[in-house]
Amino acid sequence: MLSLGVSAFLSAQGPCFDLALGTDLALTDDSNSPPQNLGFPFTYNGVAYTQICVCSNGYIWLGGVAGVADYSPTEAELLTQAPRICPLWSDFNPGVVGSGHVYFNTPAPGIATVSYAGVFAYGTTTPVSFQVTLDATSSVSITYGAAAVPGTLNPSIIIGASPGVASVSNPVSFATRPLVITSDNFAEVIPATNGVPIAYGNFKMQWTPTAPGYIASDVTCTPNSLPVPATSTLVGIGCPAPAGPSMYQMFGTGQSAPDLSGLNLTMLPSGGADYIAVPNINPVWFPGFTNNLLLGDDIAVLQTLPFSFPYNGGLETSVYVSSNGFLTIGTTNPGSGCCTGNVAAMLAGAPRVSGWWEDLNPAAGGAVFADTDPVSGDFVVTWNGVFEFGTTSANTFQIALSPSGSITWRWQTVGGASGPYLAGYSRGTNTADPGQADLSAVNGAIVSSVVQRPLRIAAAAGSRPGVGTTFTVDASEIAPAPNGVFAILLISTEIPGGIPLDLLGLTGCTAYVQLPEIASFFNLTLGAPTASFATPIPADNSILGVSLMSQLVSDDLNANVFGYRVSNGLRWNFGI
Length: 576
Hints:
The protein is mainly beta. The chain contains three helices and 37 strands.
């Protein structure tokens, strides 16, 4: 009777994915779960198993003992290690921030499921979803979501199964189904290229045992998706616009995506130590660079300027040029800055101009030049096709210092494989941090000795807008008393791209929420710099995948004519 019940469960056409995920196994990068009880015997290669161990890297160990949590799939390892089933053996990292998780469930008698729900491929933010079902007939069903995009380290992906120990290679291809497999040992080894989806996606297949071997056939089902992890996304920067003796942005891993290629930005002196940052003032790329500094990996060298550079109320006659993408104004040796952009070091050290501060290696590719532009008289440092360390990712950009005191960045092509990367400027010497600016959107920003930070909203540490949970958001940079008396949280649908509010007197502010709002919450802050808002999320699966926008408003008579600060936007993506 149990087998009949299982057969009916599998043959009835229904959703492709079972959305009852069960228990979060709390897997991290390269990890295995403790033994999970199936509740029935699952027979593979003549052995009945009642437990499995789940690996974060897309395979299942048969039995109560896990092997190595291997992120580099090879057929040799599949054939010689412990018995396992590989629905999608790759390199996944469910422990990284933003990734989905891996779940185990027994939704019905004689049924056990393992669900990889929106798990990130290692080194990417690309979610991958697939689900494995084992049943009391010893069949295996696998549902795949969108075609998986491999991570950054693995050269191949494996779909198959093996009793291990001393198995003999049995290559197969699942490209054509039904497929008759005459052995309990079989594998398709799929070459993997980072960023290129594999050939399999959005289908469900079943391996029906023929003792020995299997028939792999498609299962008719209604397409659906596994619920994605709940996330929140910052949008914009809020107002009043950030200002201070620094202006910078971080890119790459855990930061903004690189978007400066083809852009330029100039800081024009506006008296004393202040600047106004404007794009397209000095955009002409200087192609005449010839003075190769012959920099190797992690090198900084002192260069004498061809003029006295007006800076911070005085004159400077030299700069240090680092192979890692920045120059330092003055005679203080900053070191090479190995090996990634570092905001704390930029704020604390000598005055620094960062074109693309990261781990660059001109010894492996490209070169760094320092020349005088005969037309403008500018001193121009050029990083021409310089490789990111350990890669062939080439970066080309210039920093130009003008005899008038202006500073210009020209980014021709910048990016890389990981990061983080840092671009911007700081007067250094333990200056206050004004926070990040969106350099690609800067137009008329003030870089000054007066630190000004915009009202900010962000998710509280560890808090997510999960269905059936309470999501907490934090407000910061509320104006001090006698302003900052209250803060209002608005939640509504999103205005794509936002609407500038300058015409209302809210200079530099942008609206991201549609009015009237869906919900609003009032907090009497009385000049406190921070506040928190806790919002219960309904336990309603119909809102899985839905997004809303939130934004803060707080009083500040000094911010603008209208007398209010408006925060950045915070997008709520409801999920599990």
